[in-house]
Amino acid sequence: MVFKRLREDIDAIMHRDPAARSRLEVLLCYPGLHALLAYRLSHGLWKRGWPTAARVVSHFAKVFTGVEIHPGATIGRRFFIDHATGVVIGETAEIGHDVTLYQGVTLGGTSLDMGKRHPTLEDGVIVGAGAQVLGPLTVGAGARIGANAVVISDVPPGATMVGIPARIAGRAKKSMEDDFCSYGMPGGLPDPIANLLNGMMDEMRRLNARVVELEGRVNDGGEGAGDGATPRLVEDTARDDARYNV
Fold this sequence. Notes:
UDP N-Acetylglucosamine Acyltransferase, domain 1, 2 domains, 6 helices
């Protein structure tokens, strides 16, 4: 059983990392795999009621791999931490199957309560480098968290999240096997902030054109219509307001 799970973990890494040349290389040179193996030992000790021994194992794993996984966390199968430096996974974190994390990811808590205070990542989630997923929230199956995003609310299944705080920027259209996104950033991803700014600029241009048009009418009315210019301007403005739904 142990060797079967180990082979499964190595195969998962081979599938998701094009830099992996052989299973032996993965076994000897991938700290993410070493951290996962140490976690399984510490988690077994934790479940058997030996918390201090479990924390000692996880501490030494952190020293040698750069990955801190609390022995109380729950982690599914085929879990992969790519580059495996500076990753922190809290005590009550729950991670499903086929999840991928990159360097610098934090699955952290935002409460001092002893209950559930760390996130839940469902199957097939990808969390990009430097992303922070904070609090007892749920990241839905197949979701992608972009690099350096800060997630502080629940994420729908299949959503792509970017920004601080993270916002939905797209939806996954395929399964993880067909649409694996390195660092949780698919190509051609729209920028929600840029879209918002572009919309505001379009509105400003429309309003500026309207002001220029009304100033032109005031000038035309002042030159040729005398006292009748103001009523005509009011009438034209009211008609324009109705047309533009102002």
